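Please fill in the sequence for the structure shown.

STRUCTURE ENCODING:
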């Protein structure tokens, strides 16, 4: 590798350069629908036919994309959910979660409630061909289209702008978008649009490994350990992406994101001396089987921790071995678009997810225990204490909704010597932040957020008499288990990724209690009916996820 080579001269000329694309993708087999032909024309410039794309065509495509991906899913994803219902090896809880996702997809496809309350960061990648002309305002036009989708639909504004290092304010339009435009191709302008929620974005990991890991047994052992760190907070079953190598850390992680969206599926399945990226299909199946054997399942134990796995191998510097992991969650939101001389096109998503539902609703998830949330807290705790972890619950009554910013506000009160408000002591606390409420609805999409972000508050709040029953999604830290045992509290896990279903069927009333200036992170009071949950951590120190090596 470090052997000296002769300096090129007339006797030893530089060989001709042969370019090999790093990502040599095969043909695009995506099914597209035409959005419009407006704003697209062909003109001759210096003897070449050039595709001229207007600013409005870019804006309209982006708005259509972010509207579609918050309501519709790819047919392949829906088929994978149905396969869980048809798999005799799937656990009852696997099937319960998959069935809830299919019902959720059916509701979201009505175009009113988005499939997830976290309607994501708007991410746009464009590849502009050399024969494509625009007015140069492409990033602004695409961002405006994304903004318009969030303003005009029942979507949540999740982006916060830093006013100082510690003070932030919601931008109230979900901007800024992340927009990247590359020069690639010839006669077309191609796009990928993605709405990336915080839960799945937070499960993106870079490990700077060493080349010594590159043996089969060592690499598989390394990956098994790291895959377990994903936990369940990002709403499995996952589309898991693993990238081995990369010419830089950032390329490794960029490839993870693209692979999780199945954007790189058409890569070759073998490498070459030229250093092209490739998919390792054998390792994909091996890791998929490994994830099925973990017992984590679709959030509450079973086989379906992952729908599928993508493993991409990249070239690397001889002294480096970046390894990236990431997921696309059950809100599997990405769509391809393109502009050609024939018009503006968007990938055709599934508008009729009902076809994937079974003919007769199945009884899934085991026996259900009904819990009246309007009784005194001591009675709620006494009722929960009678049942073991994994018990499936149906909650009806009042819950208080509070997440990150609200928890910080309440902690400030305690640190000033003030008590927690009575509402925080008398009712279960649901970690969530709603999307906008459509006309005629009691609630917008309103699913649980990641519980782990509130772990550091639990012991302090329970010691002060609050947070005795918490409802959210995903596994939690050891400190939460210890706090519940010490103070007699409970953590109940709800199904992450079924926000439209909860809004349509379970949440009957929503009102702001305090801190309206926090927007979706205000403290809310909600009335629920038959709200599904499982006992995850009890007052005796038992933790369902500890059994799965996640707690």
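FILLED IN BY: designer on duty
SEQUENCE:
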């Amino acid at each position: 590798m470090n052997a000296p080579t002769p300096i090129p001269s007339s006797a030893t000329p530089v060989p001709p350069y042969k370019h090999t694309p790093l990502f040599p993708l095969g043909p695009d087999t995506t099914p597209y629908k035409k959005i419009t032909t407006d704003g697209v024309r062909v003109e001759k410039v210096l003897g070449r036919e050039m595709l001229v794309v207007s600013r409005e065509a870019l804006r309209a495509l982006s708005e259509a994309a972010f509207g579609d991906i918050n309501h519709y899913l790819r047919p392949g994803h829906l088929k994978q959910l149905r396969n869980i219902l048809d798999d005799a090896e799937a656990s009852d809880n696997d099937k319960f979660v998959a069935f809830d996702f299919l019902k959720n997809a059916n509701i979201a496809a009505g175009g009113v409630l988005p499939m997830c309350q976290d309607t994501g960061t708007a991410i746009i990648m464009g590849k502009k061909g050399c024969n494509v002309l625009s007015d140069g305002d492409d990033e602004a036009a695409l961002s405006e289209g994304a903004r318009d989708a969030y303003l005009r639909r029942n979507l949540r504004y999740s982006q916060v702008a830093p006013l100082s290092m510690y003070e932030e304010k919601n931008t109230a339009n979900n901007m800024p978008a992340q927009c990247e435009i590359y020069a690639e191709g010839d006669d077309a302008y191609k796009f990928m649009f993605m709405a990336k929620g915080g839960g799945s974005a937070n499960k993106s990991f870079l490990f700077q490994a060493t080349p010594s890991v590159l043996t089969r047994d060592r690499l598989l052992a390394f990956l098994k350990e790291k895959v377990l760190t994903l936990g369940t907070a990002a709403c499995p079953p996952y589309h898991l992406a693993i990238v081995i190598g990369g010419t830089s850390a950032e390329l490794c992680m960029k490839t993870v994101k693209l692979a999780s969206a199945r954007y790189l599926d058409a890569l070759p399945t073998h490498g070459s001396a030229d250093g092209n990226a490739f998919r390792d299909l054998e390792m994909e199946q091996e890791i998929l089987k490994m994830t099925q054997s973990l017992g984590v399942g679709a959030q509450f134990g079973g086989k379906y921790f992952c729908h599928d796995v993508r493993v991409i191998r990249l070239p690397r510097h001889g002294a480096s071995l970046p390894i990236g992991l990431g997921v696309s969650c059950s809100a599997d939101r990405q769509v391809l678009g393109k502009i050609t001389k024939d018009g503006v096109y968007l990938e055709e998503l599934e508008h009729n997810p009902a076809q994937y539902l079974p003919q007769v609703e199945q009884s899934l998830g085991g026996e259900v225990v009904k819990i009246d949330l309007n009784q005194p807290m001591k009675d709620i705790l006494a009722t929960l204490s009678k049942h073991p972890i994994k018990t499936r619950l149906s909650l009806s009554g009042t819950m208080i909704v509070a997440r990150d910013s609200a928890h910080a506000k309440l902690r400030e009160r305690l640190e000033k010597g003030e008590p927690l408000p009575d509402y925080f002591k008398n009712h279960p606390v649901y970690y969530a932040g709603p999307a906008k409420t459509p006309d005629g609805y009691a609630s917008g999409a309103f699913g649980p957020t990641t519980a782990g972000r509130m772990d550091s508050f639990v012991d302090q709040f329970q010691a002060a008499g609050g947070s005795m029953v918490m409802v959210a999604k995903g596994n939690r830290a050891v400190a939460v288990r210890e706090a519940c045992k010490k103070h007699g509290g409970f953590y109940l896990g709800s199904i992450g990724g079924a926000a439209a279903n909860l809004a349509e069927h379970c949440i009957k009333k929503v009102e702001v209690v305090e801190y309206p200036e926090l927007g979706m992170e205000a403290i809310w009071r909600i009335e629920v009916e038959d709200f599904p949950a499982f006992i995850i951590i009890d007052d005796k120190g038992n933790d369902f996820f500890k059994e799965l090596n996640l707690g």
